[in-house]
Amino acid sequence: xSDNKNSAAKRKGGLGRGLGSLLEGNKYTGKTESSTLNExxxxxxxxxxxxxxNPYQPRTxxxxxxxxxxxxxxxxxxxxxxxxxxxxxxxxxxxISGERRYQASKIAGLKVIPAFIxxxxxxxxxxxxLIENIQRENLNAIEIALSYQRLLTECSLKQEELGDRVxxxxxxxTNYLRLLKLPPDIQIALRDNVISMGHARALINIDTIEQxxxxxxxxxxxxxxxxxxxxxxxxxxxxxxxxxxxxxxxFGKYDEELKTxxxxxxxxxxxxxxxxxxxxxxxxxxxxxxxxxxxNRILEILNY
Length: 304
Prior knowledge:
Layout: H1 2-13, H2 17-22, E1 27-28, E2 42-47, E3 51-52, H3 64-77, E4 83-89, E5 92-97, H4 99-107, E6 112-117, H5 122-136, H6 141-153, H7 159-166, H8 170-178, H9 184-191, H10 197-203, H11 209-222, H12 226-241, H13 245-269, E7 274-277, E8 283-286, H14 292-301
Parallel strand pairs: 1-2, 3-5, 4-6
Antiparallel strand pairs: 2-6, 4-5, 7-8
Helix pairs in contact: 3-4, 5-6, 6-8, 7-8, 10-12
Family: Belongs to the ParB family.
Keywords: Chromosome partition, DNA-binding
Protein name: Chromosome partitioning protein ParB
């Protein structure tokens, strides 16, 4: 009996300042009331097989080796920080946050796990799970971006509100959301740490998906640094602004021919003729006149 008290005291003392502040005044029961609903805002030991995973969990990939390392730590130290759940009914709970601890505890062979029980509807579940993971878990950039997008769409938050909720500047939120405009191949590479956030932010400034993928393949093949990718992107943008030198030479010669045509037509019609053409070779001929008599003269030349 005294051992149980000591372990409960250790657990309570190991919650840490942040969670201790969050749960201040909450009751730790040290056991699960199996036949009735637990009191909300309490910490209780809950049977792991009574807990459902969180359907709103933003993390889609858990590193197995990292989970096994955490499981070994749990075998030695126990659960330092309780998971958070909501109670669906007697002996039925749903995870809000702490899925890594929950999964590692299963690997460690634990039968029960300490959990903070709180009240939450589906939207609150989603918002709490997303924000909890963004703030506490090592999500990859794509998971963060998807979490931000879900908070905007499913929780009806504006970007300013979202920034306040997650403690980030609006520009930071925007930069993450822009990643979702990248083609799937690049998003997967970012998710799997093949490229970094810096690489992705450079690639997103390329206008077309085809060019994005071409540069991306070069980045992976040559293991280019972020600075080198930024340089490649600048070169692409500058090349787009500058005309092709060969094309410029061709149109320069074409312009001379047009001037010759203008000169001959001006001489033939006795009035200043303008001949204009665009890069596609399309254009117009302008024949000005200052009176009806001059118009009739021009029409006679044209055999009209």
